[in-house]
Amino acid sequence: MHRPNLRQFVFALTLLATAGFARATPDLAAPDAAAAVAAGKITLIDIRTPPEWKETGVARGARRVNMLHPQGAPGFVEQLLGEVKGDRNAPIALICRTGNRTTQVQRYLQSVGFTQVYNVKEGMAGSAAGPGWLKRGLPVENCTAPC
User: Which of 50, 68, 73, 119 satisfies CB 3.0 to 4.6 Å to 8 for a cystine?
Assistant: First the structure.
């Protein structure tokens, strides 16, 4: 079982502290996110942890950026910026297991200047927002080592 280090814990607290300052919108349904990724219109970011990626696979075309980054919030943002070539205005969609973590991360990213952050609120496994990427039968890639 993965145990977060102090930096990861501080990052998680930062997410919770900033969550109330911004309204987390907009949302994307999983099929819309899949179509936007396939068309090259959005970068899909899977913020789950490596064990979760291995367990279910990763949505096709998604970039993996663990929200429990070893360097905390600065490391997470730096890696995310690398995925979008440093452009805080690039459209990105976040996905996690059920949309809970992505809601918090979406708010955090908006608070640090990202302007087009979408939330795949139904996540990989489904939630009240929808059945989820997996149950919808959307394409998944296996996560091979290193994951």
Answer: 68
